[in-house]
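Let's practice the habit of predicting before peeking. Look at the sequence and jot down your guess about where helices and strands might fall. Then scroll down.
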Amino acid sequence: MSTPLQSGPLNALYDVIDFVGQLKDPEEDKVWTRLCEKLSVAIGAEAATYYVFLPQKLQIVPRYALGVAAEDLKGTPVDIRTGLSGWVALHKEPLLVPDAYHDSRFLREVDKVTGFRTRSVLAVPLLDRLEMTGVLQFLNKTGEGPFPPEDLELVLAATRVTSLALRAAKLESTVDKVTARNASILENLGGGFLAIDMHGRVILCNPAAKRILQLPNDAKLNVAIDVFLVGLPRLADVLMDTLAKRETAKRQELSWSHQGQDRTIGYSTILIQDPRGELTGAGISFQDITGFKR
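Done guessing? Here is the structure:
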């Protein structure tokens, strides 16, 4: 059974949680670089490296290096079938090595090139669910001893929390982009479009819909459709019937009178679903066809 984390590592973990809690930018290199710095301080590592995984080439490439000979490491690719960090990338498992020179996987040539003497190694895979994205490696615990298991627990917990935060930030960014794109398309449609949620509240009304239905430009959303279309209850009924019956209407017509003028719209309705196929609302697209009916 592992020893409980002490106050120092716990404070470091709280610092990481606070960091990822404020994460807005889903740029992975920036996030993992910052985390690499934070964890190096937290566990007292003399040097650290953040590697990004290139699956096509079966390589990990240093994107950020901290400590002695950092500049000699950056940008030099490593085959994942060699070295300790390569082993971590290949097997998607963490590694805790108390004496690097007594481990056959260790590449002594790297120390020869950099002049840095590696004693102990702590390395963990960076995973997006089951997909390998990179490796964080820490070298030489400050002092004489190796990295203890508690340091590995801290680094694993921190990287898992950060991976989840990164995934959430990327999903949010994607949703925002798709929403903005769809909103732009709807805003520029020549025809009207109205949408309601499962409770019959208006969630979208494009400018063309307001113009065709002669609604005020500042008409408020998130109100019941029968309140929103108080002057046109039949159209509100069409949307609610689509939602209630789970049946769409195609190329239908609806006439009404507004300020003493008879008007006609042609419309079709749709059912709105989320990515999992769950029903989330209904929508109606329409055109003013009054001129064509005369």
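How did you do? The mean pLDDT is 84.
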